[in-house]
Design goal:
Layout: E1 11-19, E2 22-27, E3 30-36, H1 39-42, E4 52-56, E5 59-63, E6 69-70, E7 75-76, E8 80-86, H2 94-107, E9 110-116, H3 124-132, E10 136-139, H4 145-155, E11 159-163, H5 170-177, E12 188-189, E13 194-195, E14 204-206, E15 212-215, H6 232-235, H7 263-269, H8 275-289
Helix pairs in contact: 2-8
């Protein structure tokens, strides 16, 4: 990607990368680097990859209204979050995945699950859990080019981000979708059972078939606060399969964790809601109870 430093007047564009106080912006006039006005700092706003901006005189002068924003890594205006999960090495962690999905739902970002290493392990249970609740699931088998084509089609014309545990194969999948990206991949550490961190910052990559993709830092543990904080009262709405059940609970302030007469618990016992999903909800609810009000400001 050729980058030039230019002085432009009132040019609109999208931020591709933020690094060291310099912002790489793609516009109809080309791709260039610039700084941002100091006024954003006083307003508590930092330009982020995915932001639509106005550049005047070689400086970002305006950030257009965001439709969503995740805190860390800072990314704006995402259409979808694609959660890359491997069948083995590392094994699926339902709690981490459900935390990812809850944040996506909370932010109004479409969640998608992409399962890798399907030649090394069985993915039927994982697939069933998320297809059952209406989340799109794609299985990736590199011996079947059609599965990579399905991911490529999903990304067309959209701003997306890949995320998930280290070693699950995010960068490998990105390189398969568009080999020109040539994103570094890390080997699995047998001692730690997870991948080495190969992605150092959030950056949007323009895809050859249209759209942008962000490869985000991998990690083996996940706190909801890494992307944002969800109040315990709001958590229910981040589990789409709970929708429509609240009014049937015996108590108006039902937490949907242990109460008698809870319609959610009844649905779990009847197999209508996957048990792993409710277990994740309960774990997240306990964490949300510990959030202090000042942390939300």
């Amino acid at each position: 990607m050729a980058v030039v430093v230019v002085n432009t007047t009132n040019v609109s564009g999208i931020i591709l990368k933020c690094l060291g106080g310099l912002y790489t912006v793609e516009s109809p006039d080309g791709i260039f680097e610039c700084k941002a006005r100091g006024i954003f700092r006083s307003r508590g706003i930092s330009p982020a990859a995915g932001d639509r901006v106005i550049v005047s005189g070689g400086v970002i002068s305006e950030i257009e209204e965001r439709k969503n924003f995740i805190i860390r890594p800072p990314l704006a205006n995402l259409d979808q979050l694609i959660f890359v999960v491997s069948t083995v090495s590392p094994n699926p962690n339902y709690l981490i995945l459900d935390k990812f999905i809850a944040i996506a739902e909370y932010k109004g970002i479409e969640p998608v699950v992409a399962i890798t290493k399907t030649d090394l392990g069985d993915c039927s249970e994982l697939r069933e859990v998320y297809e059952k609740i209406g989340i799109r699931v794609i299985t990736v088998d590199y011996s079947d080019s059609g599965t990579v084509d399905a991911v490529r089609e999903l990304l067309k014309g959209r701003i997306s981000a890949f995320t998930g545990n280290s070693g699950a194969g995010k960068s490998t999948l990105l390189n398969a979708v568009d080999p020109k990206l040539n994103i570094p991949t890390g080997e699995i550490s047998q001692k730690l059972g997870r991948g080495r961190h190969t992605t150092r910052h959030a950056e949007l990559y323009k895809l050859r078939d249209g759209g942008y993709i962000a490869d985000t830092p991998g990690f083996s543990t996940f706190e909801t606060a890494r992307y944002d904080m969800i109040r315990k009262e709001e958590l229910y709405s981040c589990f789409r399969e709970f929708e429509g059940l609240a009014e049937n609970c015996r108590f108006r302030d039902c937490s949907h964790t242990c109460e008698k007469g809870c319609a959610v618990l009844e649905a779990v016992s009847e197999g209508k809601i996957p048990k792993t999903r409710h277990e994740s909800y309960c774990a997240m609810y306990e964490e949300a109870k510990q959030i202090k009000e000042w942390e939300l400001k």
